[in-house]
Amino acid sequence: VRITSSPRFTKWSMYVKLMMFLFLGSNICTSREVRNCKECLLIHPTCAWCSQEGGSSLSRCDLRDSLIQSGCGVKFIDKAADYPVDLYYLMDMTNTMKDDLQKLYTLGNDLTSALRVVTSNLRMGFGAFVEKPLSPYMYIYPEEVIRNPCYKFPKPCPPQFGYRNVLSLTEQVEREETKVSRNRDTPEGGFDAIMQAVVCKDKIGWRPDASHLLIFTSDDRSHLALNARLAGIVQPHDGECHINNNNEYDKSTILGYPSLGMITDKLSENNINLIFAVTKAVVPLCRNYSELIPGSEVGTLSRDSVNVVQLILDAYAKIRSKVELELLGVPDELSLFINTTCLDGEVIAGVRSSAGLKIGDMVRLKWECKC
Q1: How far is the C-alpha of 170 from the C-alpha of 22, rounded, in Å?
Q2: How far from chain centre, in Å, is Cα 30?
């Protein structure tokens, strides 16, 4: 693309626009010297490039609206793809998370504003979980505690539940009022909730052409497969969707907890990135989980979840800047040897991923097969 002057604008027009530019101040797109479209789009997701010769009197690399105001035709404006994003927020609703609930009420507007620089095609949803509603995971005596697990506390709370889809993915994110409940044992039923949020595609509303982010928020561990035998549940999880017409998981007291391996398979199968947004005490455990779950990230949730928006943005940036080769259905008799050539030309044997990438970067993956 050649950069030429614009004979179509009068000196007066150029003078006025130059004065407006100086008055309003430069933005991140015009603050750097760029020579082509690729360099422009790498600056920031909001930057756009005008490919029309003589289309813009000031800079070919600018905000989209600024280019249009400068005379560039809309059809000549190149912008980084505005990929759709589906974000489902799955929150621990046990009593220990009651302070964090206040931040959740403003999360929709805050996240929408923060992610606007990344995409304008955003949908959000919200799910809640506590624990399997049966002993020994819940209080069953006296009878009043079943209806109100917080009956000894000043404020009542709703009965314990496993998982509930509070709000399916939507562009119209409204404030959803919900209340915490109370369970008996320390680990929570988070893995039950993750499984349902992943496999119930129609109920949740995951779009096939969108980036899928599942935000898991908790301040404690989650039960794993076989733990449910303590409650007399011996039937293993089947990996299927079991959300009823009331948007609740109706096999909570029948099926055991899913295994980490099953969750990993379902996340990969449905192309969903899991982000653990957990408190400091749970971070080491979730980091161990993350090493086994491709495309997942872990962030430390601060007190009252005040940093949750920035945590999600940071985790999403890491996911977008990482390329990872995942191998599915490889026969046992077949051995694969993989080498990755990074941006600096270094060849790393046995590594299937590369991080810190930007638009236009190229990573080479070479593999050999041996029977």
Answers
A1: 40
A2: 30
- For residues 56 and 200, membership in a common domain is answered with no
Residue 227 lies in a domain: yes
Please state, in angstroms and rounded to a whole number, the distance separating the CA atoms of residues 24 and 44. 19
Domain boundary among 79, 104, 139: 79
Helices then strands, each counted (H, E), the chain: 11, 14
Cα separations in angstroms, 77 against 6, 18, 58, 147: 16, 21, 15, 60
Q: What is the DSSP letter of 85?
A: E
DSSP code string of 158-221: PPP-SEEEEEEEESS--------B--SSSSB-HHHHHHHHHH-HHHHT--TTSEEEEEEEESS-
- Please state, in angstroms and rounded to a whole number, the distance separating the CA atoms of residues 317 and 306: 19
Q: How far is CA 7 from the centre of its chain?
A: 47
Instruction: Give the 3-state secondary structure percentages of the chain, helix then strand then coil, rounded to 5.
Output: 30, 20, 50
Sign of CA dihedral 239, 245, 248, 250: negative
pTM of the model: 0.71
CATH label of the domain that carries residue 308 = 3.40.50.410
Kindly report, residue by residue over 35-57, the tens digit of the pLDDT: 888 788 777 767 888 988 765 55
Closest CA to 315 of 295, 329, 330: 295
From CA 242, how far away is CA 235, in angstroms rounded? 15
Query: Total domain count for the chain?
Result: 3
How would you label 164-202 residue by residue, b for 16+ Cβ within 10 Å and e otherwise?
Answer: bbbbbbeeebeeeebebbbbeeebbbbbbbbbbbbbbee
> Two tokens at 81?
């793809």
What tens digit of pLDDT does each residue of 153-178 get?
778 778 889 999 999 999 876 555 55
Same domain, yes or no, for 333 and 270?
Answer: no
Residue 347, C-beta contacts closer than 8 angstroms, at least 6 positions apart = 339, 340, 341
